[in-house]
Amino acid sequence: MRRSTYEFGSDVRIEETATIVGPREKDGPLGKYFDKDFRDDLLGQKSHEKAEIKMHVTLLRYLLNKSKHDQNDIDLCISGDLLDEIMGTCLTMREFDIPFMGAYNACATFAESLITAAMLISGGKFRRIISSTSSHFSTAERQYRYPLELGNQRTPLAQWTVTGAGATMLNDSLGTVALTSCTIGRVVDFGVTDSNDMGACMAPAASDTMQRHFEERGVDPDYYDLILTGDLGDAGSRLLKILMREKGTPIGDNYNDCGVLIFNRAAQDVGQGGSGAACSSTVFNGYVYKKMLRGEYKKVLLVPTGALCSKTSVLQGESIPGIAHAVSFEVI
Amino acid sequence: MRRSTYEFGSDVRIEETATIVGPREKDGPLGKYFDKDFRDDLLGQKSHEKAEIKMHVTLLRYLLNKSKHDQNDIDLCISGDLLDEIMGTCLTMREFDIPFMGAYNACATFAESLITAAMLISGGKFRRIISSTSSHFSTAERQYRYPLELGNQRTPLAQWTVTGAGATMLNDSLGTVALTSCTIGRVVDFGVTDSNDMGACMAPAASDTMQRHFEERGVDPDYYDLILTGDLGDAGSRLLKILMREKGTPIGDNYNDCGVLIFNRAAQDVGQGGSGAACSSTVFNGYVYKKMLRGEYKKVLLVPTGALCSKTSVLQGESIPGIAHAVSFEVI
User: Fold this and answer.
1) Which residues of A fall within a CB distance of 8 Å from B312?
2) Which are the contacts of B250, defined by CB distance < 8 A and separation ≥ 6?
3) Partners of residue B327 on adjacent β-strands
């Protein structure tokens, strides 16, 4: 039987991280953990797409400054977003003189990018790689559902796409948090067709990947101080708990979801919680990484989740399968 | 100075390839080299998007059969296409029980996918990976320009998106053609804004990557029997030759372009030639690989090229930067 879990030991480490978020994320429970924020979600641009690009460019420049590296020190950027043709990232990379590979696994893109970067560094040919993702509430609504100008009512299971961007600089020697293992996900289809219910599309994929991760790594869920899915939201997280219990690997109090953590659902009118390619990248690079540096978490399993659909596929009646990749981190 | 060229020796080899094409590609000069073809470009489906999915699924099933492998023998698929949210590939992978990572670098996606696969295999953690891409004339026109139903006139510099899909099965030991090196491209922007003139958007990126490839590998262009860009088309290829000559590394008779080779421009009404994510993957996996097996080519440099734009970015007045990655193959 093929395995899809890979171990890195302490060969791959986080050298630095950076995050930038919009007003709603800054005003949320994790606000103080983010490096940069802005109040005008257009960032002075003429469109939200251009704003998303400016946000991603600002993030990468800030990460280079913060880490005291120039572009030449970076071997590769592996980055993505949710726009058609990952346009935001492609036009972001126009501003940098760094080799670029575009990744797309919907809101699981951050995990895909981390896994590829870790594989490349552990392979010995790369020293330092940046993984980054961005998303923007206003571009995502237009991209996946309806233009905001239509004023559509939001459905009970809808989530709120995180406006922000997060980046991880991985390298082969510096840093006290290691990316220790990963499990690569496969596409899992439970036949959900409601593009407003992303949590239900993705929970089966999260369950599939987590089951295989625990089994192939030979650890129980309580091995980790924190298990964090990407953006299942509140309803989706509850679905995941049921699926995990049914399969005999219940997850307990050490489980949470980035989409649940980033907003205050009671006060912020965000439906089931946050979502988007930046949901896991801002929460991990802002909140989780800083907690790990302080020793408050020592072993973390991050499981970004993606719903694989487009406006066209939904209009053509296709189901929305999910994918999830798991990445573990440990303080060394 | 950072290098972006990496060597693999004979650690990464092509075990098998497969191709499937539509009627125009089958009727073109390379028709006899493709494994499978179909006459109805809807493949009996209700939409061209669904047809593109069926084509990609058929290709991967055929490759598994041809190579006498089952899904469990494949460690990973790294695949992509041109649809928003690479929807065709995501829904293709729904049919397989194989770990999946989605790649997107426009029409350079095939190169990105080959490079990632080669890195993962040479890193020692993977034995066998499939790289594949698809494109379809009718889905690409709707995606990037206008729905075909509008009957828009084609401009003189337009190209014809290849309807087809190509896949390479890479592994660590079997096969007589090795993937010997690669150069990862960066985003290059010459300010071109005409989404009908993809060749001009991509030629500067091809030139940038090829220059670095020759310099960092320490070889001249005539080291290779064949240098093949992905889909610059006729006008774009001529631009590339000028750029290469100006930079002091002229390319000669050993240079050609997959988009020029795949169609008979005089007879097939395809504008400047073929384009699309499947242009390089069908021509390489069909024509070039079979010529290499027969010893007619021994050293080949493949440089798939991508124009980084979306309908939205073009409508918002953004320029269209290009990217190109180079991958070399040698008979061992």
Assistant:
1) 49, 83-84, 87
2) B221, B241, B244
3) B182, B302
End-to-end CA distance of chain B: 31
The span from the first CA to the last CA of chain A, in angstroms, equals 31
List the domain boundaries for chain A: 10-171, 177-331
Bridge partners, A324 (sequence order): A305
Q: Give chain A positions within 8 Å (CB) of B80.
A: 104
Place of tokens 């058929």: B58
CATH topology of domain A177-331: Peroxisomal Thiolase; Chain A, domain 1 (3.40.47)
Lookup: tokens for A281 = 């990248």
Domain A10-171 identical in fold to domain A177-331: yes
ipTM for this model: 0.97
Dump pLDDT digits (tens) for A275-329: 999 999 999 999 999 999 999 999 999 999 999 999 999 999 999 999 999 999 9
| Residue A109 to chain B, least CA–CA distance (Å) | 8
Could you please state the CATH topology (level 3) that the domain comprising B5-171 is classified under: Peroxisomal Thiolase; Chain A, domain 1 (3.40.47)
Q: CB-CB: which of B47, B87, B321 is closest to A310?
A: B87
d(CA B102, CA B89): 8
| Region A10-171: CATH code | 3.40.47.40
